[in-house]
Design brief:
- By secondary structure, this protein is of the alpha+beta class.
- The protein has seven helices and six strands, in the order H-E-E-H-E-E-E-H-H-E-H-H-H.
- Helix 1 packs antiparallel against helix 2 (47-65).
- The termini are far apart.
- Residues 123-147 have low confidence and may be disordered.
Length: 153
């Protein structure tokens, strides 16, 4: 295990939270018989968000920590993405799959490590405001759909 593994694990959790992951936890498995030292577990609301969180975590760890996953499971439209970095594993679930598999219960003897407090990245907040502003506009149906007389021309 690297000297800074815990810092890397916390960076992975913080990155997931910055992408609006829900209920992120870090389980410390070092004192338990296990194949890894830490789990990061979090949820996304959609398969698109799960994939986005996964991409962000991979990018963060590669760009800033020079870490690449040894193995990855789950892909586009996945309800569970697993990133295996050998010393730690990042699990990103759709919420209902996380409840079903309930890794926190399976590894209930593992102490939880505090997840860093993170603010959501600004670009998502701006996007939300932009979408809210779009609701203020009415759609001119005539400009979007040709009338019968336009089709005949």
């Amino acid at each position: 295990m690297q000297e800074n593994t815990l810092e890397i694990v916390q960076a992975a959790a913080a990155t997931a939270l910055s992408r609006r992951a829900r209920n992120a936890v870090i389980l410390d498995l070092r004192q338990l018989p296990s194949f890894t030292n830490f789990f990061v577990i979090c949820s996304g609301a959609s398969d698109t968000q799960v994939e986005g969180i996964s991409d962000a975590v991979r990018d963060e760890l590669e760009d800033n920590w020079d870490e690449r996953p040894w193995h990855r499971e789950g892909g586009r439209d996945a309800d569970w993405v697993l990133l295996d970095y050998v010393d730690f594993v990042v699990h990103i679930f759709l919420e209902e799959k996380r409840e079903y598999y309930n890794l926190e219960r399976l590894w209930a003897d593992a102490p939880q490590i505090e997840v860093p407090n993170v603010e959501v990245i600004a670009e998502y907040e701006e996007d939300e405001e932009e979408y809210d502003e779009l609701e203020d506009y009415e759609i001119d149906d005539e400009s979007l759909f040709p009338s019968d007389s336009d089709e005949e021309k």
